[in-house]
Queue: 2 jobs
Job 1
Amino acid sequence: MEATDSVADTNPPMAMLAELTHRCPLACPYCSNPLELKQQASELPTGDWVRVLGEAAALGVLHVHFSGGEPASRRDLVELTKAANNVDLYTNLITSGVGLTERRMNELAQAGLEHVQLSIQGTDAAEADHIAGYKGGHSRKMDVARWVRSHDLPLTINAVCHRQNIDHLQRTIDLSVELGAHRLEVATVQFHGWAAKNRAALMPTKLQDAEARRIVDAAREQLKGILVIDYVPADYHATYPKACMGGWGRIGLNVDPTGRVLPCHAAESIEGMEFDNVRDKSLADIWYQSKAFNVFRGFDWMEEPCRSCDRKAIDFGGCRCQAMAMTGNAGATDPVCSKSPLHAKLLDTVIELDAVSSPPPLVYRGR
Ligand code: SF4
Ligand code: SF4
């Protein structure tokens, strides 16, 4: 892979996803974390994270998203929130809620936490705990939502939708309103990391996808001023791909639990790609100079049909990880695109998945 020399055109990143740990008590079958999870012993220590937060702010990052795994599995979460706040980063906690207590939520609020994204796996305990593979999780999430709102912190509900829960989308919307959320992010499952094992069990059908779009459109109209709904539809049923990460190395970066810096959460699935580590290099050096960030920056790397396409500044050729997974070439046009030479093959897969009458059993996330 040859790097594109576009450093002069590169703006600073706006957001940093800080994947504090891969540890997580849940076992979601749609988990997009890699098959091989990073072990606790290899995690970046507190002092390094504090330094990286300072480097991020100096680089121009505005938002830090604490994520995982379950970031509450880190004992230093409050300390890191305070450190981010001290360098004026806007702090967002992306959590399953499991591992948080009311006391810890109070401490986080006092440390300057500014926003919480709480994931739910369903709309009632039986459904949600079945999907999460964790008994009692849903009820804890409902508590966490209340604690968040009691501090008057803005709350976003994250709901991954898939074949087995997408028919309950209206209830998900209603629950988000009941919990006092300001925003609901409904993302249709993507098949990265562990999730790829469950494609036949989780891929929504074309009919389900169409009905979900109808429900979202109606709810957006009805809930104007009450709830903002972000909806990421099933890309297998789309005509064009999403602008994955808003374009490779354009607006955000991910630091994994060991300190490696990746252009996107799933980028380690791209064979042959190597990632620099904040233990060895500064964040600024990695953002501007590293091969991993430059290889798919700009447009020079693109192959046809992307290279001459008038949508290339809209979707940047789609998802590099999906191109890798489906074509073996991370530089190829994302096969989700109707202009891709491999789109017909994707449509055959969609027809096959649609025809699955009884989905296979879920393969839960292993630890
Ligand atoms: S998707 Fe589920 S199992 Fe994976 S990190 Fe998130 S909460 Fe944990
Ligand atoms: S050909 Fe490439 S740039 Fe054009 S729409 Fe498809 S993925 Fe996007």
Job 2
Amino acid sequence: MRIAPKLLALQLGLALALVPFASASAAPPITFEGVIPTDPISPCFGTVAGCTPPLVVDGFRFTALAIIGSADHFHLVSAPWAAPGTAPALQRYPSNGTQYIGLDTPGISMELVSGGVFSLLGFDAAEGYLIDSDGSGPSPFLPTSFAEKIRVTGYFVGGGTVSTVFDFDGINDGPGGVTDFQTFALSGFLGLTKVDFVGLDGGGSISGAGSGQFFSIDNINATPAAVPLLGPIGISALVAVLMLAGWAALRHLHRTENATAG
Ligand SMILES: [Ca+2]
Ligand SMILES: [Ca+2]
Ligand SMILES: [Ca+2]
């Protein structure tokens, strides 16, 4: 009867010790629906004239990467042009019926404003815009600054990176019609301080006639502090130490009881 409460305390202590290392529940995806549009493709975020500093949404900071030339800003797209012949420049943007970010940069990075650690589980993405070559409609469209692949690179809090490349399907007919965005799932993107999204050409390179390959992203499934800071090995070590401590405590208790009984 004397051992049970102590055993219970030991078990509670072990459980409480592990609480800080349990995975956080998944956060809602970052949808960009709370960003206030100022026109169908504004505001823009970057260092060029007319754009504001990096976008902050849901605790994350999104920054355009100046990989090539002046393509160092991205846009909030709230109402992609639907009709061919609509200004500006007969551009046609991908659509998922909601707001998203992209265009005018071949690279976008994301990190927590707090500087904390997060995990990236997946995201939606589409190619950049197309230009209607003769204003006649969906065909022919000339691919312009059109990413054929997207590379995602995560930077681990302890150093090192994880990276993967996804292929775009080339389907990008604007509002309505077919589905322009694809959903990409990630694994192993855990315990990160930063993630880079970079548009690539069909050969997997950054090129794109001086401006790189544009792309669009939405519904980013990121979870702050979703991975234990100790990592699996650290947790195993902690459990082993606590079990040893518990065994030692029980052994001491057993000896004390024997001595009392004797
Ligand atoms: Ca959205
Ligand atoms: Ca479409
Ligand atoms: Ca597509």
